[in-house]
Inverse folding.
């Protein structure tokens, strides 16, 4: 599946206001409403950073939002050079389901536009 980097418009250096936007079809196929959180594994060099993200909220299950929001995701995006991005051109990432409630970000599906 492909997730798109997301920001609330503020682009804080702390990572606040960042996350990933999930397509509604992927959300409905790979996420369960009874889960409170999911674990996202992000590559960082030869290491993997694991982040727990809350999905027990109406906005994630609603028709328009569907964001996995975490300051830790924002810090990862910034540290890896993916954020900030040119307005309207967020990077996209290949993601794989790796178990119940566990997702692995494999790499960039499309680099950010300069």
């Amino acid at each position: 599946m492909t997730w798109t980097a997301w920001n609330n418009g503020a682009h804080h250096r702390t990572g606040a206001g960042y996350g990933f936007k999930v397509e509604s079809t992927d959300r409905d196929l790979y996420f369960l409403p009874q889960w409170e959180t999911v674990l996202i594994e992000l590559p960082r060099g030869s290491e993997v950073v694991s982040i727990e993200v809350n999905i027990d909220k109406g906005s994630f299950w609603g028709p328009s939002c569907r964001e996995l929001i975490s300051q830790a995701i924002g810090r990862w995006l910034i540290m890896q050079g993916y954020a900030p991005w040119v307005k309207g051109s967020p990077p996209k990432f290949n993601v794989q389901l790796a178990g119940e409630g566990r997702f692995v970000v494999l790499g960039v599906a499309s680099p950010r536009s300069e």
